[in-house]
User: Fold Gamma-glutamylcyclotransferase family protein from Streptomyces aureoversilis.
Amino acid sequence: MAVEPERLPVFVYGTLRPGQVNHGYHLRGRTVAEEPARLRGAVLYEGPGYPYAVAEPGGEVRGELVSVAPGEYAAVLASLDELEGCGPDGRGEMYVRVGLQVLPERGGAVRAWVYLAADRTARRLRAVGTRVAGGSWPPGPA
Assistant:
C-alpha cells in the first residue's frame, strides 16, 4: 500500500507561479492562498523554457507559497508530480520533490514541498548551467 505524502503547501518558482502557463493548467482555482516567499539554500538555473532550483548554500530563490484547497490536494500533487516527472515517492530523473523550510513574506518559516533539480541534473547545471540573476524567474524587472 502506497503511503500518502504529507499535505504541505507547495513552493513554486517557475512556470507554476501565478501568471505563468502551468499555473493555469495545474493550480488556478485549486488553491486557498498564494503568497510571496523565499527559499534559502538554493539557486536558480535556466532550463529550456523553465528554471531549475539547485541546492546551494548561501543562495536564495524567490517564488510563491501555494496552499492547495483540501479537496483538491491529492489531484494537484499528482498533477505537479507528473509535470515535474516525479513518481508518487517524489523522485524523478530531472526533479525531486522534497520538504524544505520556506520563508513567507508575512514572516515565520513554513515547511513546504519544493521541486529541486535531481542530483544528476544539479551536477550538470553546476558545471555548465546559466544562473538566473536575482533568484527570480522569469528574469526581468522586479
User: Anything to note?
Assistant: The mean pLDDT is 92. Residues 10-132 form a domain with the Hypothetical upf0131 protein ytfp fold (CATH 3.10.490.10). The helical segments are 21-26, 73-83, 119-128. The two ends are 46 Å apart (CA to CA).
